């Protein structure tokens, strides 16, 4: 199976051929994959070099001319390093574009902490008007990218090498989908967390919701799943900073007695490279760690 990043390159190259409104801005990362697209569309495929503030500013400038920019690099260099440009050049100027990241929270541990971005979604959450997609499979990444490219708003698509075994129907109008139904609580699995959540909750009487679009947050879908069970016990499992969506879940359940547990990447920096699976286990996001923490929360 190809990776989400492979699918992004193939899909974006095709979209550039089909839609003259689209432009692509790169900062060296993934440039080799776009060689053909750069030759075919030299006026709409721009590599600015290792200049991430310019990367975002150039994309927003293209948007001001009427183009639909797709802006791409690692998450830490796309959201964290040029955050002021994301806030001002896109948000303050009121223009749209598609930010597509790679690297996620710790896809490439050997790259060190500079290439890890567990706080990207939480940081974007401080800004108004961003749609955030977190696909869990290359097919989902393609569908969400196509939707984002065809629109006009500000969209962040967060890609990862971690994937679920199979794709599920996605789209900003889909909301949270019900994967498993139960009466003892609700577990929201975001993007590539779904397979581990399903393994962790096997045999537990819980509803499992699957989320690939996390902003806007599907509060109505959560209320439907949680309503009618007395006190609503909700666990949100996200592949980025733990607690990023707990406020949104609390707001959605304001009219119901409820408890919310946010599971995700911890704030403590892990200073050993290791492999991605070791980072998942260290943050308690493997099936075993999730089983222990979800079970303990629901038993209280």
From TrEMBL:
Domain of life assignment: Bacteria
Gene3D superfamilies given in the database record: 3.40.50.920, 3.40.50.970
Residue span(s) of domain Transketolase-like pyrimidine-binding: 2-167
InterPro entries the record matches: PDH/Transketolase (IPR051157), THDP-binding (IPR029061), Transketo_C/PFOR_II (IPR009014), Transketolase-like_Pyr-bd (IPR005475)
SUPFAM superfamilies assigned: Thiamin diphosphate-binding fold (THDP-binding), TK C-terminal domain-like
Any Pfam family hit: Transket_pyr
UniProt protein name: Transketolase
Species whose genome carries this gene: Streptomyces gelaticus
Lineage: Bacteria, Bacillati, Actinomycetota, Actinomycetes, Kitasatosporales
């Amino acid at each position: 199976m190809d990776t989400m990043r492979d699918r992004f390159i193939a899909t974006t190259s095709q979209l550039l051929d089909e839609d003259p409104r689209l432009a692509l801005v790169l900062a060296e990362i993934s440039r080799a994959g776009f060689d053909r697209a750069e030759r075919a569309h030299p006026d709409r495929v721009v590599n600015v070099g290792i200049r991430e503030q310019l990367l975002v500013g150039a994309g927003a400038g293209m948007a001001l001319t009427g183009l639909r920019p797709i802006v791409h690099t690692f998450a830490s260099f796309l959201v964290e390093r040029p955050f002021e440009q994301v806030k001002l050049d896109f948000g303050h100027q009121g223009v749209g574009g598609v930010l597509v990241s790679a690297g996620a929270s710790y896809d490439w541990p050997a790259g060190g902490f500079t290439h890890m971005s567990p706080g990207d979604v939480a940081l974007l959450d401080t800004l108004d008007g961003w749609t955030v997609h977190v696909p869990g499979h290359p097919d989902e990444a393609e569908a969400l990218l196509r939707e984002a490219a065809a629109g006009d708003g500000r969209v962040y698509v967060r890609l990862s090498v971690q994937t679920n075994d199979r794709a599920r129907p996605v789209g900003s109008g889909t909301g949270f989908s019900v994967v498993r139904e139960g009466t003892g609580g609700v577990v929201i699995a975001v993007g590539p967390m779904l397979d581990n959540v399903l393994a962790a909750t096997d045999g537990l009487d819980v509803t499992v919701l699957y989320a690939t679009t996390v902003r806007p947050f599907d509060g109505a879908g959560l209320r439907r799943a949680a309503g009618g069970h007395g006190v609503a016990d909700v666990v949100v499992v996200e592949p980025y900073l733990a607690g990023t969506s707990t406020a949104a879940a609390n707001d959605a359940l304001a009219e119901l007695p409820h408890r919310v547990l946010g599971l995700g990447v911890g704030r403590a920096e892990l200073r050993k490279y290791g492999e991605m699976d070791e980072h998942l286990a260290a943050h308690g996001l493997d099936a075993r760690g999730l089983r222990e923490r979800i079970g303990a929360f629901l038993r209280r």
